[in-house]
User: Which sequence fits this backbone?
């Protein structure tokens, strides 16, 4: 049961008598006026006993709905061939057909229904235009002050971008002809990078996916290839059994490409992608050696404007990254491993029930740490991974204290549902509970079976479930089948995945964790600072140790640390120069300890890293101190014109 019934996201297209098998989209982007217009052609097949097609939508203006005159055999010829589904010539043929019959659709707030359809297979065309209030698209200025737009994971998915069947099991292929203004470029999900036809840029995909995974980015960006310098390897000539609905699958053929995959990065003039370009090939290679063959044919990266309110967003073949990840002398590059891992976890294997998003996010968060471990040459890297887990537990603890209890269970015993429970709850945009409960379930598996055996099992998991939607039960059953410790695995699943409370987690190290012990030593110093403060000796671990120290200072029962001590701590560790994560935690400490003299640092953080600022705005307001509240309001007003609509709504509700 949900906490607020009107916060459930309805999946009305699950009640449709027709399933959309293929989409053809002809879209024009007016980036100055901030709207898309065009047509969506849906190739449908009857799957129920009735005669009604249902498409999900939100905040779209539908101008006309027509049935394209075509016999069922003609429709079948296209649907029966994945080669034909990606043909530009057939796209032009179908979208240019003139003989049509006008239909009389029925509109509801969350869907459009077309009733009394006569054929078992048909093609319908929906002409429409997006609305400014639609939440699927972020219309923002890039960091050079130029207009751009992106899809960055709205609570309503893509329903404000085009009408479609928005449910995990209603998968389809698509083609897109996109017109953008002169001088603008575009990146989308799909099988390749698109090519110009004279009528627009043409994209397609032949992989069956929910249309919620479709994403695009349009802007005036530079573009560079990301080179790979890898040794030749022995091809993987295995043909792996497919359990998914048929489509051209990389597991159904030998893999000769190895870890190398076409990659490019889009970025604005004010951004330096050199660090990014150096890290990506190594990260992809590390993930490939753990999980096996690539499941997408290319990876495009877009470094988003700093005003976009997410750190990363992965879709099939397109990854959007916040510039905050690249900030500081020890940037948060490990986050790239998280987003790249989504190609396997979340895109190639996804949750059958969107209430179980841990199946995507928990695995990707775990892989973020594993990839960092495999790429590191640091002698104490296992201890560092343990320290990262300690830091993550602090985040989970904070989330569980501040997030609605109804959002704290990450799995459902009911695999079939016609709503995403609390799917429109605003806390869903900021809560990391599905990420972290899923992560800790896997961390506990490491304790039970060991890291290397678990990584071997993860590769088997990918090969077994590739292309499929699964449930928590199927996931847990798989690991129980792989390992003898079935009762322990099921017990951990019950604690971390099915419980709505915060599980107790004990940091039991097999040996003394020197990195954690050093953090404790520093904490004791700052409780009663005397003499010169100590320093962390290992540069590779220092960012995570500083983060752990700041977390533990925030946890102290005696809340007020003298402002002078906070200033000394900032001067000593310089957390604002390490990376955006340590900078953010330092700002939390400044606000919690009400250090008025350090408020300019908080203001600067909010201006530089708006994507990470939602929590800080709330904390500034809740101090009930006028100078702190003024910083929140003035900073927001300074940024307001650059922020996307969703984030503006959240912040306005917090501070006004």
Assistant:
């Amino acid at each position: 049961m949900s906490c607020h019934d009107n916060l459930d996201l309805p999946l009305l297209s699950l009640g449709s008598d027709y399933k959309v098998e293929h989409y053809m989209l002809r879209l024009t982007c007016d980036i100055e006026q901030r709207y898309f217009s065009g047509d969506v052609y849906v190739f449908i097949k009857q799957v129920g006993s009735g005669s009604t097609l249902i498409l999900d939508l939100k905040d779209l203006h539908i101008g006309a709905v027509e049935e394209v005159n075509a016999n069922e055999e003609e429709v079948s010829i296209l649907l029966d061939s994945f080669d034909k589904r990606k043909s530009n010539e057939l796209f032009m043929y179908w979208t240019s057909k003139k003989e049509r019959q006008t239909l009389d659709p029925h509109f509801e707030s969350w869907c459009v229904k077309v009733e009394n359809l006569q054929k078992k297979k048909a093609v319908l065309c929906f002409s429409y235009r997006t609305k400014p209030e639609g939440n699927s698209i972020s219309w923002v200025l890039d960091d050079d002050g130029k207009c751009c737009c992106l899809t960055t994971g709205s609570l309503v998915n893509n329903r404000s971008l085009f009408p479609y069947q928005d449910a995990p099991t209603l998968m389809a292929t698509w083609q897109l002809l996109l017109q953008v203004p002169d001088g603008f470029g575009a990146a989308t999900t799909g099988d390749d990078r698109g090519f110009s036809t004279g009528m627009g840029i043409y994209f397609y995909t032949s992989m069956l996916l929910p249309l919620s995974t479709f994403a695009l980015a349009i802007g005036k960006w530079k573009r560079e290839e990301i080179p790979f310098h890898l040794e030749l390897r022995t091809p993987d000539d295995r043909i792996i059994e497919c359990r998914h609905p048929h489509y051209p699958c990389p597991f159904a053929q030998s893999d000769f490409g190895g870890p190398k995959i076409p990659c490019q990065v889009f970025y604005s003039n004010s951004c330096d992608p050199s660090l990014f370009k150096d890290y990506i090939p190594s990260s992809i290679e590390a993930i490939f050696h753990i999980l096996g063959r690539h499941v997408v044919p290319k990876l495009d990266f877009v470094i988003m404007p700093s005003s976009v309110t997410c750190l990363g967003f992965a879709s099939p073949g397109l990854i959007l990254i916040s510039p905050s990840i690249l900030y500081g002398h020890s940037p948060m590059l490990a986050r790239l491993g998280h987003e790249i891992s989504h190609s396997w976890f979340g895109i190639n294997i996804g949750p059958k029930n969107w209430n179980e998003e841990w199946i995507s996010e928990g695995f990707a968060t775990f892989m973020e740490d594993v990839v960092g471990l495999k790429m590191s040459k640091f002698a104490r890297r296992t201890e560092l991974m343990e320290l990262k887990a300690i830091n993550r537990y602090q985040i989970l603890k904070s989330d569980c204290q501040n997030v609605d209890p109804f959002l704290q269970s990450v799995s459902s015993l009911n695999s079939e549902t016609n709503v995403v429970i609390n799917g429109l709850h605003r806390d869903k945009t900021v809560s990391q509970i599905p990420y972290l409960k899923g992560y800790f379930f896997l961390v506990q598996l490491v304790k039970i079976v060991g890291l290397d055996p678990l990584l071997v099992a993860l590769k088997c998991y990918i090969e077994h479930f590739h292309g499929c939607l699964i449930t928590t039960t199927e996931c847990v059953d798989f690991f129980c089948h792989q390992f003898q410790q079935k009762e322990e695995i099921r017990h951990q699943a019950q604690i971390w995945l099915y419980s709505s409370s915060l599980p107790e987690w004990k940091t039991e190290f097999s040996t003394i964790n020197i990195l954690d012990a050093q953090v404790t030593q520093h904490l004791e110093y700052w409780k009663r600072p005397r003499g010169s403060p100590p320093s962390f000796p290992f540069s590779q671990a220092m960012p995570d140790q500083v983060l752990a120290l700041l977390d533990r200072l925030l946890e102290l029962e005696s809340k007020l640390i003298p402002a002078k001590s906070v200033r000394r701590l900032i001067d000593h560790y310089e957390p604002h120069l390490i990376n955006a994560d340590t900078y953010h935690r330092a700002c939390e400490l400044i606000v919690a300890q009400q250090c008025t003299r350090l408020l300019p640092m908080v203001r600067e953080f909010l201006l530089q890293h708006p994507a990470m600022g939602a929590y800080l705005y709330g904390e500034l307001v809740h101090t009930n101190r006028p100078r702190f509240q003024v910083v929140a309001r003035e900073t927001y007003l300074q940024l307001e014109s650059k922020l996307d609509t969703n984030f503006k709504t959240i912040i306005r509700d917090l501070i006004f």
